[in-house]
Design goal:
This protein is 61% helix and 9% strand. The protein is built from 3 helices and 2 strands; from the N terminus they run E-E-H-H-H. It has a two-stranded antiparallel sheet. Strand 1 and strand 2 (14-17) form a beta hairpin. Helix 1 packs across helix 2 (46-54) and helix 1 (32-44) crosses helix 3 (58-92).
């Protein structure tokens, strides 16, 4: 175990970190925006992805992003519905 609290195993000639996902098995699956964020981090920000993964912060981060995006999308939909109602009242009155 090193000073960061990460355990390593010798595999062949290399020491690899013993990784475990902090996402509990009964957690709901990631939504669309969480999966999109994961793909983005993996492809375009591999250092951030690795850091979050090693610190077991990846899935909490992805769930937070998914929740925030879904909340924003719901707000936009509600605002759009309100605009349509107001527009319909103006047009038909």
């Amino acid at each position: 175990m090193d000073e960061n609290g990460i355990c390593f195993s010798l595999v062949g000639d290399y020491y690899l970190p013993n990784l475990k996902l902090s996402d509990p098995p009964d957690a709901p699956p990631l939504g669309r925006y969480g999966r999109m964020r994961k793909a983005y981090l993996k492809e375009w920000r591999p250092k951030t992805y690795s850091r979050l993964l090693l610190r077991e912060e990846l899935y909490p981060h992805l769930r937070e992003i998914d929740k925030a995006a879904q909340t924003r999308l719901d707000t936009i939909k509600d605002e759009e519905q309100a605009r349509e109602i107001i527009l319909a009242e103006l047009v038909y009155n």
